Amino acid sequence: MRILCGIVLLLFMPSGISSASDVLTLEECYELALARSEELLIHQEKIREAEGRFLEALGTVMPTATFEWSRKRQDGNNASAFSLQDIPERKFVFTQPIFSGFKEFAALAASRAQRRERAFERRRAEHLLFLDVVDAFSLLRQQREDLATLEAIRLALVERLDELAARQRLGRSRPSDRVSAEARLRRDEAEIERVRRQEATARHLLEFLTGLPQISGLADDAAGAPMLDDEETCVQRAHLRPDVQAEEEAWRIVKHEVVVAQSGLWPDVDVEGNYYTRRVGNASGVDWDVLLKVEVPIFKGSEVLGDIQTASAKARQAKWRFEQVHREAQREIRDAYSDVQLAIARQQALDRAWKAAEDNYRLQLDDYRLNIVNNLDVLQTLQELQDVRRDLIAATYDVQRLYQRLQIATAHDPTT
């Protein structure tokens, strides 16, 4: 039974392996990635930019107040009040827009919709960043577990070589048996180096996302087979996705732009008031005045009609883009749901295959000691055991990654 010692790690290995006490969870890696993502910082500045546009639009409906000072010199001999050579004037000017075809209110609504659009875009960027972290986190754990499997097989092959050497000295084994086992060992060692390179690539990617200089241990966040809602329930969540909501807000923005264009057909009404602190001549006794100004558009060629048609066409395009993104989100959810279902079924089948391969390997070892099977049969069984175990590891992490993609596709918050 000594040869089983090399493979005991493989047979009873837990799904998560960590060699460090200070392990990182998926949620911790995601929080670190959120804190250093330049893409999210850009989206945050876009939100501030939209807030600035809202303040600009708000200013168009607010009253304005200015102070004006002027000094006019003209030709005259001071013979009358209208022939003064020096005419100074100081006044406060107050202006209040009254009506301009609802243009200002449409601009305000559009700026609020734009801020919501930017916020949804930032949320979508957070979701995509989470998927990047999930891929890097799961891939790194998969490669490390794969390395542990290969190392367990290598130990089993080393002990097998020792046993074959002892059997050869007793004349119970041929030299070709030892050579074939050694060839299998060298091939396993080459595969270990290849997986180590992949592990380094995955580790560098996770270090890039999190900003950590070195990542050692990763926690096992798997909680068994995920529980899935029915497919239609998942599809009905498509309208909650940030990318779909962002397109809907973009549609609202363009619809408000149609109102802005239509305001060119309406009159403009403004009130302007002046309070004078200094006047000369006949107007020196007038301290204030108020002007009501109504400007009615009569003819501007086809400029306004062209603006309305352009804005209406953009609104229809935005509506169709929103409907397209919504349908694509529904299709993506259906694809993700199907992928998860198939991945779970494959994982369960591989789990059964691994248990059968484990039993087969033990039986082959017993038969070999009884000279019922040869060394080639044992090596082939060991190869099958390794392949099934590695496939099971890959399938397990595929389920985790695909499930998280389904969660993001159905607008669930990351890490919940």
Question: Explain this structure to me?
Answer:
By secondary structure, this protein is α+β, with helices and mostly antiparallel strands. The chain has one domain (2-409): Outer membrane efflux proteins (OEP), CATH 1.20.1600.10. The chain contains nine helices and six strands; from the N terminus they run H-E-H-H-E-E-H-H-E-H-H-E-E-H-H. The protein has a four-stranded antiparallel sheet with strand order 2-3-5-6, with no helix packed on it. Helix 4 packs antiparallel against helix 5. The longest helix is centred in the first third of the chain and has 67 residues, at 103-169. Residues 1-21 have low confidence and may be disordered.
What can be said about this structure in brief?
With 416 residues, the protein is α+β, with helices and mostly antiparallel strands.
